[in-house]
Amino acid sequence: MVNPENEDMDGQEFLTGDIDTEAVENSIRSMLAAFGEDPTREGLLNTPKRVARMYPELLSGYRMDVEKLVNGAIFNVTYDDMVIVRDIEYFSLCEHHMLPFMGRAHVAYIPSGQVIGLSKIPRIVDMYARRLQVQERMTRQIADFIHDLLKPQGVAVVVEGLHLCAMMRGVKKHDARMTTSSMLGSFRKSINTRQEFLDHLNRGAEPLRI
């Protein structure tokens, strides 16, 4: 079902029907007690409810309506040069520790008769970012979705990420960032096409910061 209270800043609704918020709330309350905290003290009393309300938004990618996301914004054009949307901010949750990872995605495709509205590409990134994820899989999912949707000559996706599971715990490497890529069609076959895309990304690029 669609819950109008969970409408994002751009007005796109996401589905929340299969998130058991009551179970999440009870689990958080149990976790607080397991941590040695008092779930009934003032500062924590409403924490389980807040967390339960948060997850439908953070994990909304599972329930995004693809048809509504695209919303007919596919257009027939005579254009066969590269289309690039770069520096798309994203936030996701690592499926191994459920800690955030975040960064930028860069998406390119070479049309084969059809293009998609500019605003839809960041939405596609969000659809796969707002899940329990690993960056490698998310990168390929974005590329595959655009490839299947538009049937272009090629698709390229590069994703940069800072992972809190590596920054806050374990190796504690604060400046380490991960880069993943997926190249399909002409981007995989042609070194020149791939290099053109990478040259665009390197032009004026700034270090990723949080």
Structural class: alpha+beta
The CATH level-2 architecture of the largest domain is identified as: 2-Layer Sandwich
* Low-confidence regions: 1-16
- Described by the principal axes of the CA atoms, the overall outline is elongated
Average per-residue pLDDT, rounded, comes to 89
Give the number of helices. Answer: 8
* Number of discrete domains: 2
Strand neighbour order, sheet with most strands? 5-2-3-6-7
CATH class of the largest domain equals Alpha Beta
CATH topology of the largest domain: GTP Cyclohydrolase I, domain 2
What is the number of strand segments? 7
Which range best describes the helical content: under 10%, 10-25%, 25-40%, 40-55%, 55-70% or over 70%?
Answer: 25-40%
Give the C-alpha Rg: 20 Å
CATH H-level superfamily title of the largest domain: GTP cyclohydrolase I, C-terminal domain/NADPH-dependent 7-cyano-7-deazaguanine reductase, N-terminal domain
Tell me the span between the first and last alpha carbons: 35 Å
Q: Sheet with the most strands? A: 5 strands, mixed
Task: Return the string of H and E elements.
Answer: HHHEEEEHEHEHEHH
